[in-house]
Structures are given as C-alpha cells and as structure tokens.
C-alpha cells in the first residue's frame, strides 16, 4: 500500500529509527548483562517487546511525516528543494537519535532505568542539567563524534532516500496509507500501556523491553496519578480505622472520635528540652557505604567514628529516589503519594509540618541549601511552610571555596550553617536548621587537598569521602561554639545513590543511615526498629519531650520497640509498604502484590498476604484522602 507511493520516503526513517533503537537496546543490554536472566528466551522476550514499543514510538514520531505526505502539493513534493529539505531532515533525525542513544546510555548508567519522571523533571532545569552534563562528560568529543556519525549515515542512506522521494500519488491514493499511519498512534494512545513491557520479574529486563522515547512521553503524560482511580482501595472508614489503630499509643491519644481525623495529642513524660536542631540531609548517602553495613572502601571514616557515639538507627529507609521525596517525608511526615512529590506541586504551602511547629515554639527555622532553591521548587515549598531560605543566592563570594553546577561545596554549606547558628545564638533564639548538601552528586567534583582521592577522578567514591570529610570538619568546628552543647545533630540521607534493581521494589536501594548526635542530651545506642523518613520529625520531637497536637502519619520510633516497625518506600508509580519480613507493593491498574522480604539477603519472594496488603492500602489511601481534602493543612 505504501510501496512506490509518495509515502515511500518514510521507509528510510523507519529503518533508521528501528536500527537506532536496536543499537541502543543492545548497548544497554550489554551494560545490564550481569543483572539479567541469561538465556535465549529472555533475550527474545526483551527484543520482541522492544520491537513492538519501537514501532509504537516511531508511528507517534512519524505523524508529521504522514500528514506532510498526505497534504503536500505535488509541485513542491517533486522539487529539488523538497529533496534537499528531506536530506536535511534525515540528517537531523540521525543526529537526534544518536544523541538520544548516548543520553539514554548515560541516564541508564546513572539511574538503571529508561527515561522516566526524572528526565521529565530535568527538562524544567535546563541550565543545571546542561551544566552537569558539561562538567561530567567530554562534550568536545561526544558531540562532534555524533555529528560525524550522522553525516556518514546520511551519506550512506542518500540514494535510498532520493529514490523513495521520486514517487508521487494522486490524493485519493494517499488516503488509505495515511489513514493506516494515523490510526496506529490513535489506537496506541487508547490501548497501549507501558506495563506491556513488564515481561519479567527482573526489572532490568522490563526496562530494556521498553523504548526510551515512549517511556519519556509516558512519564510526561502520567505526572500525577489520582490514587482513587488507579490504585487498590477499600472502604474509607475501614482504612481510617486501620491507620488510627497503627498510630495510637500510650502517649498519643486522639483529639476526638471522628473516624476520619488522625489528630493526636502527644504528651511527653518529662520537661520540654528547647534544644537546637541541625538536620543534615546528605546527598545520596546510601547505608552500604558505612562500615557498619559492610562498607569496605573506607570512604566514610568520620561517620563511622560518629556512629557509636550517636543514637544510631540501623534499619532506616528512604521514602523515594529523589531529593524532593526525602525532604517531603521529613518535613510533612506523610507517606508518598503517586506521581510528583508535593514539593513540586502547586499549592504546596500551609501544611501542618515540622518547620511550622518549631517556628510556633519560638525557633528560628531555616532551610540552608547548597544550590539555588528554585530548583525542584524547594524555595516555594519551604518558604510556604515556615522556613527562611538560605540558598546559594545568599552566599557572598568570599564564602565560596568551591562550587559546581549543582551548588557550593559541602564545606561552604556547613560554614554558612555555623554563621547562621551563631546569629541565632546571639539573638537568644533556639534554631532549627535543615541543611541539604550537593557534593555527592555527579559530576562529583570537590575542593583539592582535602582527601586522598584527587578531584580529577570525578568518582562517586571521591565525592562520598569528601562529603564525609566535610561532616567531620563541621562537627569539629561546631564543637568550639557556645551553642554546641545544646544542639542535636541529625545526619541522614535524602535517598540512596542507586535506585535500580532486579525486583519491582529493590528495598536495599532505599536503606539509609540516621544518626542522632548530642553528647550532652542523647544517649548513644542502636535502634533496631524498622523505620523510615516520615518518622524523623515525631522521633526527634519525642527526644525533646515536646507535647503537641499532631497530624503526622509518622510516629516516634523510640516509643514502640522492634515489634510493629514499618517503613514506606516508593518510585513515582509504585508504592511500597515494609514490615518485618514483608513487603506489599501497590501500582497503577489496582496492582497489589505481597512478598516475603529477607532483610539480611535483601531478596523478595512472592507470598499471599491479605492482612499486609490491606494495611498497605489503608495507609496510602488515607494519606491520599488527607492530602486531597486538605486535612493536614493548618
């Protein structure tokens, strides 16, 4: 139908798209090979599903070509100018696909997945992302190399393209092929779902079976997912009853009998301690780097030495895989919602939150960030929830030793935090400072002469050791300050360094440390209760003996004991609920599955677990209801 018609010129573009997709998939498969199930059947499934999604993606991309072939005037279509334009368009297509292939490889190397919400988010912050790419990769080699490759491919395909462009068709004969080409994307939009790429229990195989371009636009389309429409649900009253039972405790009585009101009155057993708080959210500090969790590289000597002097939470889990997820969980004490983090959503202020609670207690409350706070909407979120903002824009030139595209060095950030603490102390006010670092982030650059790994290595290992060095220096500097004795230091992470894994919810890649250090006020010890980031605020407030009315869905870990521990973990669309030895995972299309979780081996095995599944649904459904109905607003 299309052969020897004016639609013939689309064949070279189709061949190009499929070839580029095949090569990209082959490169990613080679990289992920150690994590894949080996065998011909596994590869056949990956490439068969992959070819399907490649075709779907192509027909979306080819819509303008189909419309042009349908409506272009014959005089223009058969002209030399049109042939020259098509040659240029083909060259551009080669370059774009080659660039996309390189970008996908680097993205997969960093995150272990095809393009997803992270790529969509990064589109908003082109200067930071482009700067990160420029500082991380040798673009003077990559871009000219892609240009040369595109020129060579275009030259090789020129005869085929020119031959295809010589065919013309009367308008009536164009209708049938045009209808076919237009029908494919319409049907794909209505029927095809990215879940069709889930061909295996191995998540790497599922990612390889997808198409990166299709995955990108799928993520763009599904930026927010209404819980009630896409996720497993239960009777609303039953869900709230389950959550209320889980949140009740001897020091936490409910404010009223309304089943859909989770407000509790927290009553401390001793006098309130109006101590300062410095919370360090360390970029990508995975638990696996610490010696206590089996780290053998010796890159966290200061944190390792601090652990036995601190209250050390060993079974602590990040809520998500992005900085904004960690900040959201710590500040709002709310389980993650599907889609974008609340930090990035409009109308993200006025919550009942940790910062506002401290401000109401007379604290100076500051968010101190190494980068520019407009990134990921952080300034809007924190300023709307009781914080003063101190970001990179507030640093004087003489306060910056070193910086890269993401922000000032950790040393600079900590030096600034000391100055801010000095100011609050002189004013006679207690302070709560939330510090967000950036040094342990690609391009992994840092000041020279600090550690035994040169900055020129641009390695994760070097960045982690520098971040650890900066923490040690900060605590040493702070120890000489008059406010040190009455300050609680909390060291934890926003998320892990790596979020990819073989299973649909790789729990080990959410494991982070939390250390609470205050020699004069917090007794050193080890907490073995399973907990997560949403428990941070209630636990620290408990250590300070605060009595208050709360709307937090997190709880004071120290009031529970090992039995009853739980944590929330998530991707953008998958919601996980961890309990001792168990994991429930919720996903779109009412997906709900339970697993046995071997915490020591960090492996999952499918199981039947109705009680666990109901509890998971209850928490996530209730969190969505509370957010949607503004029940955790002031």
The first-to-last residue Cα distance is: 64 Å
Based on CA atoms alone, the radius of gyration comes out at 27 Å
Number of helices: 21
Q: Oligomerization state of this entry?
A: single chain
Domain count: 2
What is the strand tally? 19
Taken as a percent bin, the fraction of beta residues is: 5-15%
Which fold name corresponds to the CATH topology of the largest domain? Alkaline Phosphatase, subunit A
Estimate the helix proportion, in percent: 40-55%
Poorly predicted segments: none
What is the CATH first-level class name of the largest domain?
Alpha Beta
Determine the CATH superfamily of the largest domain. Alkaline Phosphatase, subunit A
Structural class: alpha/beta
Report the mean per-residue pLDDT as an integer: 92
Report the major sheet: 9 strands, mixed
Q: What do you see in this structure?
A:
The chain has two domains: 10-221, no CATH class; 278-560, Alkaline Phosphatase, subunit A (3-Layer(aba) Sandwich), CATH 3.40.720.10. Helices cover 44% and strands 14% of the residues. The model has no long low-confidence stretch (mean pLDDT 92). With 634 residues, it is an alpha/beta fold. It is built from 21 helices and 19 strands. The strands form four sheets. Strands 3, 4, 5, 6, 9, 10, 11, 12 and 13 form a nine-stranded mixed beta sheet that branches. Strands 15-16-17-18-19 form a five-stranded antiparallel beta sheet, with helices on one face. Strands 1-2-14 form a three-stranded antiparallel beta sheet, with no helix packed on it. It has helices spanning 10-32, 40-61, 63-71, 74-77, 80-111, 117-124, 126-136, 139-164, 171-191, 203-209, 212-221, 227-230, 236-247, 301-306, 323-332, 354-360, 378-383, 410-426, 460-479, 536-543, 610-628, and strands spanning 252-254, 264-266, 276-282, 311-317, 364-369, 388-390, 403-404, 407-408, 431-436, 487-493, 511-517, 525-527, 531-532, 548-550, 566-570, 575-579, 582-587, 591-598, 603-607. β15 and β16 (575-579) form a beta hairpin. α2 (40-61) packs across α9 and α18 (410-426) runs parallel beside α19 (460-479).
């Amino acid at each position: 139908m299309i052969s020897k018609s004016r639609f013939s010129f689309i064949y070279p573009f189709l061949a190009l798209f499929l070839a580029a997709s095949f090569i990209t998939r082959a490169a990613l498969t080679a990289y992920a090979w150690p994590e894949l199930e080996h065998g011909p059947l596994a590869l056949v499934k990956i490439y068969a599903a992959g070819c399907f999604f490649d075709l779907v993606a192509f027909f979306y991309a080819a819509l303008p070509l189909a419309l042009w072939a349908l409506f272009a005037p014959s005089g223009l279509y058969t002209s030399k100018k049109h042939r020259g334009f098509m040659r240029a368009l083909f060259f551009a297509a080669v370059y774009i696909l080659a660039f996309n292939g390189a970008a996908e490889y680097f993205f997969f190397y960093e995150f272990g997945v095809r393009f997803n919400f992270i790529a969509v988010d990064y589109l908003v912050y082109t200067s930071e992302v482009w700067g990160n790419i420029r500082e991380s990769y040798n673009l003077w080699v990559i871009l000219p190399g892609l240009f040369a490759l595109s020129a060579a491919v275009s030259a090789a395909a020129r005869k085929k393209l020119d031959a295809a462009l010589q065919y013309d068709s009367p308008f009536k004969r164009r209708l049938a092929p045009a209808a076919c080409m237009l029908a494919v994307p319409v049907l794909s939009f209505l029927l095809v779902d990215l879940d069709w790429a889930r061909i295996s229990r191995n998540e790497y195989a599922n990612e390889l079976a997808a198409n990166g371009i299709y995955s990108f636009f799928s993520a763009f389309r599904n930026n927010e997912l209404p819980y009630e429409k896409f996720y497993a649900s239960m009777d609303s009253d039953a869900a709230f009853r389950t959550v209320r039972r889980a949140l009740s405790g001897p020091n936490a009585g409910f404010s009223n009998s309304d089943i859909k009101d989770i407000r509790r009155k927290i009553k401390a057993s001793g006098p309130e301690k109006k101590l300062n708080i410095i919370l360090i959210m360390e970029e990508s500090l995975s638990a696996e780097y610490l010696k206590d969790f089996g780290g053998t590289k010796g890159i966290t000597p200061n944190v390792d030495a601090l652990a036995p002097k601190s209250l050390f939470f060993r079974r602590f889990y990040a809520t998500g895989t992005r900085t904004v997820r960690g900040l959201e969980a710590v500040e709002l004490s709310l389980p993650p919602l599907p889609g974008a983090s609340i930090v990035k959503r409009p109308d993200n202020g006025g919550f009942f939150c940790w910062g506002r609670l401290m401000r109401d207690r007379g604290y100076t409350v500051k968010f101190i960030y190494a980068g520019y706070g407009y990134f990921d909407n952080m300034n809007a979120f924190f300023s709307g929830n009781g914080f003063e903002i101190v970001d990179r824009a507030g640093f004087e030139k003489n306060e910056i030793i070193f910086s890269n595209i993401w922000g000032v060095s950790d040393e600079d950030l900590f030096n600034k935090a000391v100055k801010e603490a000095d100011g609050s102390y002189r004013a006679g006010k207690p302070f709560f400072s939330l510090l967000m670092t950036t040094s342990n982030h690609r391009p992994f650059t840092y000041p020279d002469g600090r550690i035994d790994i040169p900055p020129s290595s641009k390695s994760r290992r070097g960045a982690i050791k520098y971040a650890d060095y900066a923490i040690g220096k900060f605590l040493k500097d702070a120890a000489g300050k008059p406010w040190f004795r009455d300050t609680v230091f909390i060291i934890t992470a926003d998320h892990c360094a790596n979020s990819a894994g073989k299973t649909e919810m790789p729990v080990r890649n959410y494991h982070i440390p939390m250390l609470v250090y205050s020699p004069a006020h917090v007794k050193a010890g080890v907490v073995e209760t399973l907990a997560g980031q949403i428990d941070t605020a209630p636990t620290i407030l408990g250590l300070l003996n605060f009595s208050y009315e709360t709307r937090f869905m997190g709880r004071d870990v120290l009031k529970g004991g090992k039995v009853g521990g739980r944590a929330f973990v998530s991707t953008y669309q998958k919601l996980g609920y961890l309990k001792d030895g168990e994991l429930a995972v919720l996903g779109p299309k009412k997906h709900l599955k339970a697993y046995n979780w071997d915490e020591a081996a960090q492996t999952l095995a499918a199981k039947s677990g109705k009680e666990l599944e109901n509890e998971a649904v209850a928490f996530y459904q209730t969190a969505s209801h509370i957010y949607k109905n503004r029940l955790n607003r002031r």
